[in-house]
Specification:
This protein has 12 helices and 8 strands. The chain has 285 residues and is α/β, with parallel strands linked by helices. An 8-stranded mixed beta sheet has the order 1-2-3-4-5-6-7-8, with helices on both faces.
Length: 285
């Protein structure tokens, strides 16, 4: 049985869980069934317990947390029955300023036309996480030169929400593997793809119609509106955010893109505006 859209959505949600407690177990090559993990203290996931329970075939096989550097966090999951491997990349942290400016930096690079995707540290770290995990699974050396072959052989696909969706699209762009994203930011403008070319990639871009991030940029693959029937731990920002806040964020990005403010000024202004929106964004999926 192929990986379902619901599987992808649940796994993209689990990318927000800090699995640090399982680091030693995973380092020994052991796996952890996702329905045996205690999520009660994880506000972002607790309400999804009913969706996680039936997924006993899915095991956590690897995890990375680079919040101290680039900000990239990701988890790798294996379906023990089908052999499918899904890499789930975390989006912008709900408490974005707690972990420094790594996520914001990546968000901005994706927002800019012709943005410097080659120096996007979360892109680089996500690629390293995939190659390291597949090297461990296969017992062979996996690198950029042979990655596409291993992605095909081991039935690898990618998922993520928001910024994590953009990272998943990037991994599809590099490897040809499938990605399914939820409200993922489009990355075509950051890698110089027009809409016609971008649409040919193997990505399903699921979007809740009111979501700002999911409707931004040039998405890879196909776009489909998603019924807004999934559980949340908080309100939908699209229902509550003052449009003037979005306008101010756009103005800050544009001023930075045109060189009208310094990098330090950009980060300061952008983070200040995000803090003002935090009460309605921090509990969103």
């Amino acid at each position: 049985m192929a990986v379902t859209e619901k599987d992808y959505l649940v796994l993209s949600k689990l990318a927000y869980v800090n699995f640090d407690a399982y680091a030693n177990v995973l380092a020994l090559g052991q796996t952890v069934p996702i329905n045996q993990i205690d999520y009660s203290q994880t506000n972002q996931v607790a309400s999804w317990q009913n969706y996680i329970e039936p997924m006993g075939d899915w095991k956590l096989i690897n995890y990375v947390n680079k919040n101290g550097s680039s900000g990239y966090c990701g988890a790798a999951f294996l379906n023990s029955q089908t052999g499918d491997i899904v890499f789930a990349s975390r989006g912008t942290e709900p408490y974005v300023l707690q972990y420094g400016m790594g996520d914001i930096k990546q968000d901005v690079q994706l927002a800019l036309i012709g943005g410097p995707s080659g120096t996007n540290n979360q892109f680089v770290d996500s690629l390293s996480f995939v190659t390291d995990t597949l090297s461990r699974v296969s017992g062979q050396i996996v690198d950029r030169s042979n990655l596409s072959r291993f992605v095909n052989t081991y039935k690898v696909s990618f998922t993520g929400h928001s910024l994590g969706g953009g990272i998943s699209e990037f991994l599809t762009y590099l490897t040809g593997g499938r990605s399914v994203t939820l409200n993922g930011v489009g990355i075509g403008q950051a890698i110089n793809l027009d809409r016609a070319t971008a649409s040919g990639y193997n990505t399903l871009h699921l979007v809740i119609s009111a979501d700002l991030t999911g409707n931004y940029g040039i998405p890879l693959g196909q776009v489909r509106s998603l019924a807004d029937d999934l559980p949340r731990s908080g309100p939908d920002p699209g229902d509550y955010i003052d449009p003037s806040s979005i306008s101010r964020l756009a103005q800050i990005i544009n001023r930075y893109a045109w060189g009208q403010i310094s990098t330090a000024q950009f980060y300061s202004n952008f983070s200040t505006e995000l803090v003002s929106m935090n009460n309605v964004t921090r509990n969103y999926i």
